[in-house]
Amino acid sequence: MDTSPVAPHRMDPAGGCPHADNARLLVRGAVTPVVLPGEVAGMAVLGHEALKEFLAHPEVAKGAEHFTALREGRIAAGWPLTTFATVRGMTTADGEDHRRLRSLVSKAFTARRVEQLRPRIDELTAGLLDDLHRAAEGGGGVADLRRHFALPLPMGVIGELLGVDAEYQDRLHHLSNQVVATDIGPEQAVAANRELVAVLSAVASARAEEPGDDLTSALIAARDEEGDRLSQEELIGTLVLMIIAGHETTLNLITNAVRALCGHRDQLDLVTKGEASWADVVEETLRWDAPVSYFPFRYPVRDLTLDGTVIPKGTPVLAGYSAAGRDRAAHGPDADRFDVTRPGRPGAARHLSLGHGAHYCLGAPLARLESIIALERLFTRFPDLDLAVSETELSRHSSFVGNSVRALPVRPGTSRG
């Protein structure tokens, strides 16, 4: 038996498709040491059951004070993953602080509030399908679905929820991309974070002067009326998290679902024939090609043994959602196959791509609703829609956090309506 230590997996800052590496790593085990950008030692949890246990473990924390290397000053200024560790908000809070911050935001994402958004999502979707059609007409039959459809839909919805004027939305998307990128230099990283904070501070100032029926106005009221409930730093940190999580995940989800359906026309046929639902498409895409590949960070508050591997106290740990989604131990020998009938099978393992435990994605119902509406309307309007280039020609995200492509050129074909 080989007892030699496992060589750490070096996370590629340039990103790329994660699935080949994931498959190789899963053969080695459910937990693996990794090297993060800047030669920072970390770990990644890849296996479905191990990740499920880890995400809900009572001795795993999110607060940056538990990140040993950061606390000891061993993380260089401008480290591209700094924001994930240090932004003040729900994703970096524990215990009572987490419950306090989550309660301030949760009212905007109740099932009732999300359902009330359906008419607006329908309206936005219809307008964006018109835009996609016009873009294709002006582009020789080809248009970038990501730019003209998959991006402006969730950005428009989260923008309205937060009270962010349209003039800010393109810039916020660009800055969000820079924040989640893992291949940019220290100066770029610092500049992007500073500008993102500056733009959102301007948004908050505008809402303070003219409050509306939006989440930012409600957060400002909580800050001003009950100062112990929300600090200024937490206000801006919450807006940072809401903007990034509120559109990047759904953008990647819609993009990846369209790619999957175009590459598996038999699965699209099952949906159009009523043998599977658009909700099934969304759930299978979340499993098969998770919109977030490796999410930073969690830290054991003591040395933690998980699936036979010790994760030392204070180690930054990545949650390997894309790997867990194709873990054969949980999803069967055909885990690599895109199958829209899988979510409805008795005993099918539920994916973890929107999290698990206390930090389960608060915006999950909204992301699902937006994606279901978007996909149904898209393929109803353009039943012959297909990729304009091969899958291998698509340029990938320059990040191992977000999992998708930079652009999605499609041929919409004949429009029905």
Automatic annotation (TrEMBL):
Keyword Amino-acid biosynthesis found: no
CDD domains listed in its UniProt record: CYP107-like
Keywords (A to Z) from UniProt: Heme, Iron, Metal-binding, Monooxygenase, Oxidoreductase
Pfam families according to UniProt: p450
Alphabetized SUPFAM superfamilies for the sequence: Cytochrome P450
GO molecular function: heme binding; iron ion binding; monooxygenase activity; oxidoreductase activity, acting on paired donors, with incorporation or reduction of molecular oxygen
Gene3D superfamilies tied to this protein: Cytochrome P450
Keyword Heme: yes
Similarity comment: family membership: Belongs to the cytochrome P450 family.
Protein name as it appears in the record: Cytochrome P450
